[in-house]
Amino acid sequence: MWNDEKIGKLRKLWSEGLTTGEIGKRLGVSKNAVVGKAHRLGLKGRPSPIKRPNAAAIAAAGGVSAAPLDFSGSATFFWTTFFNLVGK
Fold first, then answer.
1. How many whole angstroms separate alpha carbon 3 and alpha carbon 87?
2. Measured between alpha carbons, how far is 33 from 64 in angstroms, rounded to an integer?
3. pLDDT at 33
4. Over the stretch 39-50, which tens digit does the pLDDT of each residue have?
5. Domain extents for the chain?
6. Which residue has the higher pLDDT, 25 or 80?
7. Which residues fall within 8 angstroms of residue 19, CB to CB, at 6 or more apart?
8. How many whole angstroms separate alpha carbon 20 and alpha carbon 33?
9. pTM higher than 0.70, yes or no?
10. Nearest to 45 by CA among 15, 21, 12
11. d(CA 86, CA 41)
12. Could you write out the three-class secondary structure of the chain?
């Protein structure tokens, strides 16, 4: 599956910064095959292409607020309902 030519192309495409999915498409292998081979070759890791907001960005946008959940009485509700159904 991996020959010297494919490994050379992998190294080149990796250094150009292509995603693992794009490299896989060009080489005819899966994204996971690219990741595994790059790891075994010791190629330098790269940051994830997925953009995630950091804490400062979330705070600047007003953050996320949620009312605390109130589970008091939920067990009583459950068991009362359960026994009412079973008793019928």
1. 70
2. 38
3. 96
4. 999 999 877 767
5. 4-44
6. 25
7. 49
8. 9
9. no
10. 15
11. 63
12. CCCHHHHHHHHHHHHCCCCHHHHHHHHCCCHHHHHHHHHHHCCCCCCCCCCCCCHHHHHHCCCCCCCCCCCCCHHHHHHHHHHHHHCC
Residue type, 43: L
Vertex 81 angle, CA 79 and 83, to 5°: 65
Q: What percent of the chain has pLDDT over 90?
A: 48
Q: How far apart are the C-alpha atoms of 84 and 55, rounded to whole Å?
A: 47
Q: pLDDT for 18-38, tens place per residue?
A: 999 999 999 999 999 999 999
Q: 25: burial class by Cβ within 10 Å (0-12, 13-18, 19+)?
A: middle
